[in-house]
Write a structure and sequence with these properties.
Elements: H1 12-37, H2 42-70
Length: 71
């Protein structure tokens, strides 16, 4: 789905598909952040680790919203 589609009326099915994709995509980026943090000083790694934890919590909430919407 492209960004222009976000400005159009979405069906429930399209919205759920987009949310699922976004959660999966975000997980992938979280792993990349952890890998990149290996090159950082230890104190900076703490911030990245905390940020990844927040991304993980966000993804859990997105998946909960999907389950709720699916009934």
């Amino acid at each position: 789905m492209n960004h222009d589609a976000l400005h159009e009326e979405m069906t429930l099915e399209q919205a759920l598909a987009l949310l699922g994709y976004m959660a999966h995509h975000s997980e992938h980026h979280a792993q990349e952040l952890l890998e990149a943090s290996r090159a950082l000083p230890e104190k900076a790694v703490v911030y990245i680790t905390e940020a990844v934890a927040l991304l993980t919590q966000s993804n859990e909430k997105i998946r909960a919203a999907i389950k709720e919407a699916e009934g």
